[in-house]
């Protein structure tokens, strides 16, 4: 890659973070719901289920959870090793770092603010009277939406497609990785690895810097 300005777009669940946010939320419903949601998540990330349909089914299981439960679950989200180094080093070199997720703004907004991400996009949980309805508010952020976000942000900031980098682990990241100048599969499922230009199998997100020639700070 060149020394020109880059756009790095990260998946969130199991990439920027070590956890699947919806699985953390499901634990506040019941052990049975947590197992069911976790199983559906695993199949969706392996590309064996349609993401939008699987997300709709999983979110339905969250109906009745309070927004306070969402805040509590968010407190348990763990950043991936090397996440802060990746973001801060890339930005120090003049690049942009964004995140796009099939997860939820309610959980990702605090992380994006803490990391100082340049842009982020995710689904929104519908709530009424402080309780989740079990529905998504607005269009679903799926594989196509992730690819669109990468292209849209690059165009907005006059960054050539060849200077875009996408990092993800699951089946719904494949289109985004394929559209990027460099697609990086991070601790990824087989379907994602097959679509990637670079594969990182060590749980350290800062290794992305080495692959794109950006020094650590």
Could you explain the architecture of this structure?
With 217 residues, this protein is of the alpha/beta class. The chain is 44% helix and 19% strand. It has helices at residues 12-16, 21-26, 31-45, 51-60, 67-74, 83-92, 105-115, 143-156, 174-179, 190-193, 207-212; strands spanning 7-10, 96-104, 119-123, 125-128, 131-136, 164-168, 182-186, 198-200. The strands form 2 sheets. Strands 3-2-1-6-7-8 form a 6-stranded parallel β-sheet. A two-stranded antiparallel sheet has the order 4-5. Helix 3 (31-45) packs antiparallel against helix 4. The longest helix has 15 residues, at 31-45. 48% of the residues are buried.
Top keywords for this entry?
8 strands; alpha/beta; 217 residues; 11 helices; Rossmann fold
Quick rundown:
The protein has helices at 12-16, 21-26, 31-45, 51-60, 67-74, 83-92, 105-115, 143-156, 174-179, 190-193, 207-212; strands spanning 7-10, 96-104, 119-123, 125-128, 131-136, 164-168, 182-186, 198-200. It is of the alpha/beta class. It has one domain (7-212): Rossmann fold (3-Layer(aba) Sandwich), CATH 3.40.50.1000.
Q: What's the helix and strand layout?
A:
Blueprint (H helix, E strand, L loop, with lengths): L6 E4 L1 H5 L4 H6 L4 H15 L5 H10 L6 H8 L8 H10 L3 E9 H11 L3 E5 L1 E4 L2 E6 L6 H14 L7 E5 L5 H6 L2 E5 L3 H4 L4 E3 L6 H6 L5
Parallel strand pairs: 1-2, 1-6, 2-3, 6-7, 7-8
Antiparallel strand pairs: 4-5
Helix pairs in contact: 3-4, 5-7
